[in-house]
Specification:
DUF1003; transmembrane helix; 2 strands; mainly alpha; membrane; 230 residues; DUF1003 domain-containing protein; single chain; two-stranded antiparallel sheet
Length: 230
């Protein structure tokens, strides 16, 4: 059994990684923490994966400068192997105040065909009532000044309420955009990490195949020598 240079513990057979086989960027990061580390020393696959994640963090810092809060959340998710994909709709709805919920209801109703039909029916009923049924003593005779006043008040109140709902919608879209950005960034970094692991497996497998070929070559040479002697 090989012993890990980092933890000084024995490594399970098959999980030992020789430092010579590690990518230069990750090896440099290891040597920054362990200056006396040599290429012939061994570490475990779990320790290598830990430094792979740290290497990804350093790559993000180099590309973007100082880590933003969103980037930090992504890096923590990668280091903890946690999932970022979640339904944020329930969380957004749970934060709503009574006024915000009321604004959404008014905005939905004000932008529907029900409101348009009801609104025009009310205006038509108002006009017919004052012209036909109350023609002798209308409470709002032509040109319907009271109706114009009511419509102006309705527009003055409805407009800011709808703007409140639209501002909330923009906030929700921004939260969704940040959430999608986190998922995409995590997926990109995970793909890089996966490529790193695949490269390591291919290199390790190629070396094993070369060793097998060398053993087979030695075996054939021994057989040829035996045949020549006979």
């Amino acid at each position: 059994m090989k012993t890990s240079y980092i933890s000084k513990k024995e490594i399970i057979i098959g999980e030992e990684i020789r430092c010579k086989d590690i990518r230069d960027g990750i090896l440099s990061l290891l040597k920054s923490d362990f200056p006396d580390l040599h290429t012939e020393d061994y570490i475990s696959i779990d320790e290598l994966n830990q430094y792979r994640r740290l290497y990804l963090t350093s790559l993000v810092v180099q590309e973007r400068g100082e880590l933003a809060v969103i980037d930090s959340d992504v890096i923590k998710a990668i280091q903890n192997n946690s999932i970022l994909s979640e339904d944020i709709q329930e969380e957004l709805e749970a934060r709503l105040t009574v006024g915000q919920k009321l604004a959404d209801i008014v905005a939905r109703f004000g932008g529907s065909w029900i409101f348009i039909i009801t609104f025009f029916s009310f205006i038509l009923l108002w006009i017919i009532t004052n012209i036909i049924f109350l023609s002798s003593q209308p409470f709002d005779p032509f040109p319907f000044i009271l109706l114009n006043l009511l419509l102006s008040c309705l527009a003055a109140i409805q407009a800011p309420i709808i703007m409140m709902s639209q501002n909330r919608q923009e906030q929700k879209d921004r939260v969704r955009g940040e959430h999608d950005y986190k998922i995409n960034l995590k997926a990109e970094l995970e793909i890089k990490l996966l490529n790193e692991k695949m490269d390591h497996l291919l290199i390790h497998q190629s070396k094993k195949l070369l060793e097998i070929q060398e053993v087979q070559t030695d075996y054939l040479e021994d057989l040829l020598k035996e045949l020549k002697k006979k």
